[in-house]
Design brief:
Number of helices: 12
Shape: globular
Distance between the termini: 29 Å
Number of strands: 12
Amino acid sequence: MVKIALDAMGGDHAPREVVLGACLALAEYPIELFLVGQEDAIQKELDAITTIRYPKERLHIVDAPEVVEMGESPHLGYKRKKKSSIRVGLGLLKEKEVDAFVSAGNTGAVMMASTLLLGKIAGVERPAIATVLPSETGRVVMLDMGSNMDSRPNHLVQFAMMGHFFAKLVLGIETPRVGLLNVGEERDKGNHLTHSTFELLEKMPLTFIGNIESKEVFFGKADVVVCDGFVGNNLLKFGEGVAELFFGFFKREWKSSVFSKIGMFFLMPALKRFKHQFDYEEVGGAPLLGVNGVSIIAHGKSNGKAIKNAVRTAYQAVESRMIDKIAGAVK
């Protein structure tokens, strides 16, 4: 049975929503969960959950009295808080007491602790955050989404290889199509980084489809989109802002008049389908690919449903032996 450590203190709504997500995951997946955090706070939330039936014998609490706050310096948090839920949880993974770690906490702290405690897979120069985004035809993996602000061509090639295996093993895409994010589709577009990366990707044993523009990401042209972390993180934040603007507009229109309410009533089924398809809660978490262990970073705003799905991502990564297959590919 897959054993997963879950950071109970990570995220804007911890520990309440994290504990809820843990119970939901246990009710659905064949896993054993270790809730890592302040024991009294975790137990209080567990006692409050009475409507979810889950196997309590597969849920354990691991006390970790310290918390790395969301706005805290990752370096100082790692150095000063050795009993934080992040360090204790990743310590369990390092010692192979669990098979994966999930956290909605401080992203920088999770990245730093994962890299320092677990180490990098042999041959990987830089780990990368792989975010699963929605598209018209399913899901698309995009990396790097913020762990590397200044990448070289060989780094992007490794991102492509790791993204390929994640898309194939976790998302179930038999032959992932890999695209290079650029300002145009022509091979001579872009800068030195994209030109050099393009030439290297052509020689790799991947289904490389060439350059892809940002406007095409959500239309299913590629299954894996590669870029450096500076570009990827900005694109992700821009997309989140557009989504908030979109749903905020319709919320305001709903309240503006009787006719708007009538129109929105008929549009509601389509809007719900749209929200379901483009909702980060459905994806749950982003793997930090390239470290020597399954480390999943969930959104800081994660609710119980998102946490449950982040645990699912960890479970699928372990079951598919993703780390071993990435390690074999980048040697």
